[in-house]
Amino acid sequence: MTTLDVGPVPAASVERDRSAVHIRAIRATDAPELLRFYAGLSPDSRRTRFLSVSGAVSPAQSISFCTTDHDHEEGFVAVVHGGPFDSPRIVGHLCLEPDGSDAAEVAIAVADEFQHRGIGRRLMAAGAAWARREHVRRFIATMFAGNAPINRLLIGLGLPTRVRYTAAGVTKITIDLVAEIVAA
Predict the structure, then answer these.
(1) Spatial separation of the C-alpha atoms in residues 62 and 32, rounded to whole Å
(2) Which tens digit of pLDDT belongs to each residue from 111-120?
(3) CATH code of the domain containing 172
(4) Total of domains in the chain
């Protein structure tokens, strides 16, 4: 399968209006666009997302991210329309993988030019809604301790969190998803 690469969507071309970015569950057909999304991230954004230096996501990894069972694992993408062919472009990805019987490992990336616009928060909200429907009680996120933006995003969700510093400058954050249900 091939895709037509129309280049990145300039952030300035997308309105500041939150409705310009659509959050939806990932689809198997998103694999080529997700591959393009990860290839377009800066090296630092890829390093902080995958906790390692990597050139890009492989086609096999992209397909794996896009073939969730929607019951035990899930993914969400933030999509905008733009470019000369008005093709949908992925500008954010949230990945949820099982981590025990009642927890999910959460990982998120937002295109560099779309960061600090609330896209990560919206992706996390979609993930939390799915998790609660699937009886997932906790999110677990592993990140570099110095990754202030993701730390602010996760701690800023307003849910009880536990932060644990592990070896080699890595932090593990556990987010209690049930507390909000009880309080609501």
Answers:
(1) 7
(2) 999 999 999 9
(3) 3.40.630.30
(4) 1
